[in-house]
């Protein structure tokens, strides 16, 4: 994979309610696009109804440790680094989104917490085994080598780490592309007024056989 930038702007911290608002958006998008297949089955109440965001209090604590959150930040920025299309994942609050997601007291989120914690532990222990350093202290090239080991080498021993990465990648993308910055990175220009509408482009009309 291409190395991300070695430096990135300061991470943005989300309030609890803002993080949960993003969870609601990401869950709604997932339900629309993949009918919740990748998220498991929500119960009848679902995270869309709890907690009450009009109240100041959130009913559960965040569960990731400082070390886990640090590695979540590093991995998220490796998946979506800062580039010409947009900001790094951590800058738009993706680590807080992940922390809020896995802290929610619902069965799908609890299952994700188990998978994500096991994956973070694998990266941490494998970094110490290979480089005699924690994942956060390893060099950028060493961290990329570990990620490549999961994605490219694909051995049976790394199946759990690969399953973690697929889940983690999806959650990072869900947190990132539920933000205005993520929409901009995709080139989405909706919800903005147009002074004039020039009509569909010629390519679209030709595709439909109308030009």
Could you explain how this protein is built, in words?
Helices cover 54% and strands 0% of the residues. It is globular and about 60 Å long. The chain is mainly α. It is built from eight helices and no strands. It has one domain.
Radius of gyration: 19 Å
Range of helix content? 40-55%
In round numbers, the mean pLDDT is: 80
> How does the major sheet shape up?
none
β-strand amount: under 5%
**What is the count of distinct domains?**
1
Q: Are there runs of 5+ residues with pLDDT below 50, and where? A: 5-9, 32-49
Q: Which H/E pattern describes the elements? A: HHHHHHHH
The backbone outline, from C-alpha atoms, is: globular
How many helical elements?
Answer: 8
Structural class: mainly alpha
* Number of DSSP strand runs: 0
Terminal-residue CA separation: 41 Å
Keywords:
single chain, 211 residues, mainly alpha
Compact overview of the structure:
The protein has 211 residues and is mostly helical. The chain has eight helices and no strands.
What is this structure's SSE topology?
Layout lengths: L15 H19 L31 H14 L14 H10 L3 H25 L8 H14 L5 H18 L3 H7 L15 H6 L4
Helix pairs in contact: 1-3, 2-3, 3-6, 4-5, 4-6
